[in-house]
Write a structure and sequence with these properties.
With 345 residues, this protein is α+β, with helices and mostly antiparallel strands. It has eight helices and 21 strands. Bound molecules: adenosine-5'-triphosphate.
């Protein structure tokens, strides 16, 4: 079993606290994405797991064994860096087998491993090429193959797909996931791309300011964000200042009584109401929130009505078939679908 456990991990650079008391358990064989804005500590956490940095506090365990005294090259971890760090003077097969060469593995085994991994990453027969003869996507595959060469217990990748264009990137997300599943290797990927994390991961760990904000499945993160930061970072939700008084949600001059399915994830007091655009209903002026349409965005598969409600911008999303006949400047009435409202700290 290669469960990866992180216990009370902190990292200081001088007086700066880059990682603040992080505890996470990653079950054997799971694919985990560390997700968060630039500077939140994702790479620092990955480098600590790899043994490239030393923790200020806390420990890392793999399969129950404490790694504190284990140097990086003995941790059994495969790594793919954002820069890829491929060697131009070596051919593709030598690049892939490099981690084995520095461990003293014989030439025949190195060649066999390189050939096997080239098949796995769909570059069969390309072992003799030089790095400069490869496309960006092919280089990415070589870096992934090299990360897997030592048959790692844990596979660590830092923004592995960030240099690829959008189309290739989506394709590689699926391929990376398939490779990981075929090997069953416990994998941790750093990304700042919400969609990428939700597409690939079994478990998403959302970070901010060196702290874990939420760890959960993509469904949990998307549908039950732990706080307003997670809801906002995962994207596209309406966040509206409100007050939860223990019985009703006071928002934009209205009092809403929670219905079955609504989620109150904070103590009474000032809070944020999160309502996804697909759960905002838009109608002719009536009893709901009075608003004015300021912009209409037609994305083909959905139509977004951006409205102003007092000082607040609220977006409603409808299917093209259900598009109401409103235009920019029209007065409308908004309502938030009961059972889909979330009150967050
Ligand atoms: P990005 O998405 O931009 O790569 P990140 O979430 O991976 O960001 P880290 O690289 O882990 O963030 O950095 C976290 C914080 O720690 C940043 O404020 C960074 O400036 C700081 N930091 C990282 N490494 C060092 C270092 N060696 N010395 C000093 N400060 C550092």
């Amino acid at each position: 079993m290669t469960e990866l456990r992180i216990e009370g991990l902190s990292k200081r650079f001088g007086t700066y606290l880059a990682l603040d008391d992080v505890s996470i358990t990653i079950p054997n064989g799971k694919f985990v994405c560390l997700l968060g804005p630039s500077g939140c500590g994702k790479t620092t956490l990955l480098r600590l797991i790899a043994g490239l940095e030393t923790p200020s506090e806390g420990r890392i365990l793999v399969g129950g064994a404490d790694l504190s005294a284990v140097p990086s090259h003995k941790r059994g971890m495969g790594m793919v860096f954002q820069s890829l760090a491929l060697f131009p003077h070596l051919d593709v097969a030598e690049n892939i087998a490099y981690p084995l060469a520095i461990r003293g593995t014989d030439r025949a085994s190195r060649q066999a491993t390189a050939a096997r991994l080239l098949d796995l990453v769909k570059l069969p027969g390309m072992g003799g090429r030089r790095i400069h003869q490869l496309s960006g996507g092919q280089r990415q595959r070589v870096a992934i193959a090299r990360g897997l060469a030592i048959d790692p217990k844990v596979f660590l990748l830092d923004e592995p797909l960030s240099a690829l264009d959008a189309g290739l990137r989506e394709h590689m997300q699926i391929e990376l996931r398939q490779i990981q599943q075929s090997l069953g290797v416990t994998t941790v990927v750093v990304t700042h791309d919400q969609k990428e994390a939700l597409t690939m991961a079994d478990l998403v760990i959302v970070m901010k300011d060196g702290k874990v904000q939420q760890a959960g499945t993509p469904m949990e993160i998307y549908h039950a964000p732990a706080n307003a930061f997670v809801a906002d970072f995962i994207g596209s939700t309406n966040l509206i200042p409100c007050r939860w008084d223990g019985q009703a949600i006071e928002v934009l001059g209205h009092r809403l009584t929670p219905a079955e399915g609504d989620r109150i994830a904070t103590a009474p007091g000032l809070a944020q109401l999160s309502v996804r655009p697909e759960h905002v209903e838009i109608a002719t002026p009536g009893t709901g929130f009075a608003a004015e349409i300021t912009f209409i965005r037609d994305l083909g598969e959905s139509v977004h009505f951006v409205t102003r409600c007092g000082a607040q911008t609220i977006t409603a999303q409808v299917a093209p078939g259900a598009r109401p006949p409103f235009g920019v400047g029209d007065a409308v009435s908004l309502s938030f679908r009961p059972g889909k409202r979330v009150v967050l700290a």
